[in-house]
Amino acid sequence: MGGMTSRLQPPKRTVRAWLSDMDGVLVHEEEPIPGAADFIARLTGTGRPFLLLTNNSIYTPRDLQARLHRSGIDVPEDAIWTSALATAQFLDNQRPGGSAYVIGEAGLTTAMHEIGYVLSEREPEYVVLGETRTYSFEAITTAIRLIEKGARFIATNPDVSGPSIHGPIPATGSVAALITKATGVEPYFVGKPNPLMMRSALNRIDAHSETTVMVGDRMDTDVISGLEAGLRTILVLTGSTKADQIERFPYRPTHVVDSVADLVDLVDEWNDESQEVVDFAP
Ligand SMILES: [Mg+2]
After folding, report:
1. How far apart are CA 232 and CA 244, in angstroms?
2. Which residues form the signal peptide (predicted)?
């Protein structure tokens, strides 16, 4: 533990539920970050409501559960919330039983099927773009033509690139930009930093913003969307944002810690009902 942790003040309100980003917080690719397994074990062991969030829309929760398991981190499938699930839920709320032309992998197509959407290229109500590793010029052309004919343009996440073992790879945001350039139509992005991703996660576990914290490694996605959804935020320094970059942002996380290992004991310490009274103290 370093100096950052020693300044951690107890929260003014009890913390009953936890949201956490995955990559850069719990794992680097498939490599576990020390403390991650203990943190998750503490959450599950004490029965605290929690959800692991990811902007990646390639995988189903079951795929991600298996990937985490290989990293020594065990979570139930329903504790994983992806931008694909959030996108499907958004569409289900907006136009239940609708139709969409989907570019994406199983993570997205499964989520769309589960909410009862018809996947079709015949006059769909939406074009929904997600992450894929095999972008097809033909599929992009179809998407462009459908949008020009009036289909509404939705994208699971705005990330322009993602990590791979060989280096960065183009992600949903880059392909969305290509379609935008061709059509003049901007997509509605559902994933982080859209606070919709946080709100849908809170609803999923029946949690309330004022008694939930969001843990993340990026100021410009995790912290800003947590903040805008009314959550307290914890930045860990094991991922994207470095300690010397924090003060350059026009907003701050509620807490900064070196790593997820510093959070293990806080799961119990911060869930103290007696702290509720501290709320009105100066
Ligand atoms: Mg991350």
Report:
1. 21
2. none
Q: Is residue 179 located within the same domain as residue 123?
A: yes
Whether 21 is catalytic: yes
- Residue 233 Cα to ligand 1 middle (Å): 13
pLDDT band at 112 (very low <50, low <70, confident <90, very high): very high
Q: How far is the CA of 121 from the centre of ligand 1 (A)?
A: 33
Assess whether 204 and 169 both reside in one domain: no
Looking at residue 180, its pLDDT comes to: 98
Sequence-distant (6+) residues with CB within 8 A of 71 are: 26, 27, 30, 31, 32, 36, 37
17 phi/psi in degrees, rounded to 5 = -135, 155
CATH of the domain at 166: 3.40.50.1000
Q: Token match 């860990």: residue? A: 236
Rounded to two decimals, what is the model's pTM? 0.91
Percent of the chain with pLDDT over 70: 92
Q: Is the pLDDT of residue 113 over 50?
A: yes
pLDDT tens profile 7-17: 566 666 799 99
Active site residue 23: yes
C-alpha of residue 25 to centroid of ligand 1, in Å: 6
Query: What is the rounded CA–CA span in Å between residue 51 and residue 54?
Result: 10
Q: In the chain, how many domains are there?
A: 2
